[in-house]
Design goal:
Helix content: over 70%
Number of helices: 1
Order of helices and strands: H
Strand content: under 5%
Radius of gyration: 28 Å
Distance between the termini: 83 Å
Oligomer: single chain
Structural class: mainly alpha
Largest sheet: none
Shape: rod-shaped
C-alpha cells in the first residue's frame, strides 16, 4: 500500500470519527435536556407532595414517629 492510499484511508476514518463524534455530542445534549426536564418535574411533584401533607407532616416526620409506644 502506498502513501497516498494510506492517507486516503486515514481521511475516510477521520470523516467517520467526526460524524460519530457529532452524533454522540447530539445524544449527550439531548439526554442532558431530558435530565433537566425530569429534575424539574421531580421538584414539582415533590412540592405538590409536601403541600398535600396535613399539618406539616411532610417536613421531617417519619412513620416511625407515628408508631404507638408499645411496639
Amino acid at each position: 500500500m502506498n502513501s497516498e492510499q494510506r492517507l486516503d484511508e486515514l481521511e475516510v476514518k477521520l470523516a467517520f470519527q467526526d460524524d460519530l463524534l457529532e452524533a454522540l455530542n447530539a445524544t449527550v445534549a439531548r439526554q442532558q435536556q431530558e435530565i433537566d426536564l425530569l429534575q424539574q418535574q421531580l421538584r414539582v411533584l415533590y412540592n405538590q407532595f409536601r403541600a398535600s401533607q396535613p399539618d406539616g407532616q411532610g417536613s421531617g416526620h417519619s412513620l416511625r414517629d407515628e408508631i404507638p409506644p408499645h411496639y
